[in-house]
Amino acid sequence: MALENNLVFGNLVYRAYSKDFAHVGDTVLVRKPHEFSTVHDFAGSGTTTAQTIVESSVPVLMDKHYDITFPVTSQELSLDVVSFREQCIAPAMRAHAQNLDALLAAEATAIAAHYPVSATPAVGDVAGVRAQLNLNKVPFANRSVVLHPQSEQAYIVLDAFLHAEKRGDTQAIKEAHMGRVFGMDWYMDQNVPTHTCDATTATGALDAACTAGATQASITGNCCKGAATAASITLAVGDVFKIAGEALDKGHRITTASSAASNGTVVATFSPPIQAGGAASAAAVTFQLTHKNNLALHKNAIALVSAPLEPPLGGARGDVVSYKGLSCRVVYDYTSNVKTNVISIDMLFGIKVLDKELACRMPDAR
Question: Could you tell me if residue 45 is inside a domain?
Fold first, then answer.
């Protein structure tokens, strides 16, 4: 409970729990709900067309094993349960929660869809993010937006947030909640990262036309050059851009790092592919420069999968505690040569983007 109460991002994503014992590097399968893509017109007569339900699952690598170990004095052991929790357990779980939230927030670089905010905070930014989610056909329930502290500072003073209804369940969620605005719950998380883009100018153009389905394009212009020296830049994995003329205007994400040639042209590899209708030669390309990587997401966009670790077999005592899809192992030991009790709290978990279409970045370059 101490861990869950300190989570922000961790309480807004899909949490799965594997009851099977897992080692670091093991892979567990997370089930995804089946989606029906076709609706047949019955027209009051004829026969129905049966569709097969195919249960799908996503492999999640359990590659994140984190530990906090700390000494416990005899005096601390004599504390009552409440004091021991406040002085020993709660600080450790706050640190675990901060680390977990930071790892979840870093997953935003896997998302291509984005809506850049305006230079001056406006309610139109909120509407724009909502529109991106709507274009992606994101379900209306369980939508959240998580902001960098400086982005929160810009928006929380708007009337839409000043008069928004406050809600939340766990303590961190209550404290971080900015309100429900335009069908989305807005939160602040100190762990929202800043994404660094090598380019110093946002705009460029396609060097040649791209056909529908293409995942590479030659881009030229100032966005492919550095600062005043006009040195070539590198497009990094996670950089995002939009191409003028695409119908849905959702955006693309660089998937392979590549450097520009001396003439300021770069071959970019990206996802998702160019939309139906293609993109014309000389179509404007707009990159998002270095920005706070705020994220709007549906609960099922990202999965946090926790697995229990085995208790120790040696002389140390230990317990494995699981609660609402989270699992921690607590090991108690005693170092006789320094007469010190030691407590170790560790977690094994994996993080995976389940559906990139269920999230949208909200780059803030301020």
Answer: no
Instruction: Specify if 46 maps to a domain.
Output: no
C-alpha to C-alpha distance for 163 and 366, rounded to whole angstroms:
24
Joined tokens for residue 53: 């339900």
Quick one: how many helices (H) and strands (E) in the chain? 7, 22
Residue pLDDT, tens place only, 103-125: 999 999 999 999 999 889 899 99
Cβ-proximal residues to 64 (8 Å cutoff; 6+ apart), any chain: 103, 347, 348, 349, 350, 351
Per the domain annotation, does 43 fall within a domain? no
| Range of the structural domain that residue 215 is part of | 197-289
Domain boundary pick from 240, 261, 289: 289
> Are 167 and 238 members of one domain?
no
| Residue 121 neighbours by CB distance under 10 Å | 19
Low-confidence ranges of the chain (pLDDT < 70): 20-22, 32-47, 53-55, 81, 165-173, 226-232, 262-263, 315
Measured in Å, how far apart are the chain's first and last C-alpha atoms?
A: 36
135-163 tens-digit pLDDT: 889 999 999 999 999 999 999 988 888 87
The set of residues, in sequence order, having a beta carbon less than 8 Å from that of 240 and lying 6+ positions away, is 112, 114, 251, 252, 253, 254, 287, 288, 361, 363
CATH number for the domain harbouring residue 221: 2.40.30
Residue appearing with tokens 């049966």: 50
pTM value?
A: 0.86
